[in-house]
Automatic annotation (TrEMBL):
Belongs to the class I-like SAM-binding methyltransferase superfamily. C5-methyltransferase family. The active site is at C80. Gene3D superfamilies: 3.90.120.30, Vaccinia Virus protein VP39. This is Cytosine-specific methyltransferase. It is an enzyme of class 2 (transferase). It catalyses: a 2'-deoxycytidine in DNA + S-adenosyl-L-methionine = a 5-methyl-2'-deoxycytidine in DNA + S-adenosyl-L-homocysteine + H(+). Coiled coil: none annotated. Signal peptide: none annotated. Keywords: Methyltransferase, Restriction system, S-adenosyl-L-methionine, Transferase. It comes from Flavobacterium beibuense F44-8. Its EC number is 2.1.1.37. It comes from the Bacteria.
Length: 332
């Protein structure tokens, strides 16, 4: 088990929609002990177990919030399913409940809300795609903010780019909240100051890579023709031949299909896709992170994951606030 919990933990956290544990890794590095984790994907659970020695619980919608252990920090890289605040007046006319529980019903964010309501962790950190802010003309994010505020948490959010920590352009929204009953509104939280650091893709490349990662003539021809057609139409679609001295595009979960968004140029032959270990490095995972699944599953997992060092930088600021308050931690 490469990443056991700390022997003398300083705080407790739970890891929801855990994926392969990129956020857990960050908070474990900060001295936290994970007391509960949830992830439904069987392949991700396999990777998680290989690295942390625990099999996550499954579908969060089937888990009773009363069964979740007490914790200081709730962490969740939650998937955002579309939802809207439309229809509240209709529910009023039918005499049905609305407000935060009903507005978010049917979405996975609801599961975070019910756990926050029941367990009252001192703080939380949520991660999602940048587009969450603008989805449904801003209504989706408005519901999320209102829900968290109704639960009596003060909210801080910011879109942050992973390129300050790894050679990848990857913008994500981070939402941090503090329990007003505990902090009394006196927390002094600020997101980390992102300092311009020159990262380059060549830092994460392996010296030798098997030929199977080089694109076939057929696939390479297809990608070039696809890009040419879209350029003729004035679209920006196409493959990304990466500048090895610069940063890459955002790696997505579809990387397993053809690797088109991040292709590595090679002298005298077709470009190649990244190997799974390079994908892990591109997300800031250490080299002792075990990859026990097939290449295709690994591509999906790292494409869905987080820039772990960025999560840790935000986590440092969260934990700093916990340490400043006299009640201290709920010692594990």
């Amino acid at each position: 088990m490469p990443f056991p919990p700390p022997k003398k933990p300083e705080f407790k956290f739970i890891d929801l929609f855990a994926g392969i544990g990129g956020i857990r890794l960050a908070y474990q590095n900060l001295g936290g002990k994970c007391v509960f984790t949830s992830e439904w994907d069987s392949f991700s659970k396999k990777t998680y177990e290989a690295n942390f020695g625990e099999v996550p619980f499954g579908d969060i919608t089937k888990i009773d919030e009363k069964d979740i252990p007490d914790h200081d920090v709730l962490l969740a890289g939650f998937p955002c399913q579309p939802f809207s605040i439309a229809g509240v007046s209709k529910k009023n006319s039918l005499g049905r409940k609305h407000g935060f529980l009903d507005e978010t019903q049917g979405t996975l964010f609801f599961d975070i809300a019910r756990i926050l309501k029941h367990k009252r962790p001192k703080t939380f950190m949520l991660e999602n795609v940048k587009n969450l802010v603008s989805h449904d003309k801003g209504n989706t994010f408005k519901v999320i903010q209102n829900t968290l505020k109704e639960l009596n948490y003060s909210i801080y959010y910011k879109v942050l780019d992973g390129k300050y920590y790894v050679p990848q352009h990857r913008e994500r929204i981070i939402i941090v909240g503090f329990d007003n009953e505990y902090f009394k509104g006196e927390e002094n939280f600020e997101f980390p100051e992102l300092k311009e650091v020159k990262h380059s893709v060549k830092e994460i490349l392996l010296p030798k890579v098997e030929d199977k990662y080089t694109l076939s003539d057929k696939l390479w021809s297809y990608l070039q023709e696809y890009a040419r057609k879209h350029r003729a139409k004035g679209n920006g679609f196409g493959f990304g031949l990466t500048d090895l001295n610069g940063i890459s595009r955002t790696m997505s979960a579809r990387y397993y299909k053809d690797g088109a968004e991040i292709l590595i140029p090679q002298k005298g032959k077709n470009p190649r896709r990244l190997v799974p270990r390079e994908c892990a490095r591109l997300q800031g995972f250490p080299d002792n992170f075990v990859i026990p699944v097939s290449d295709n599953q690994a591509y999906k997992q790292f494409g869905n994951s987080v820039v772990s060092p960025l999560m840790q930088a935000v986590g440092e600021k969260v934990v700093e606030q916990l340490k400043q308050f006299s009640n201290g931690f709920d010692k594990p």
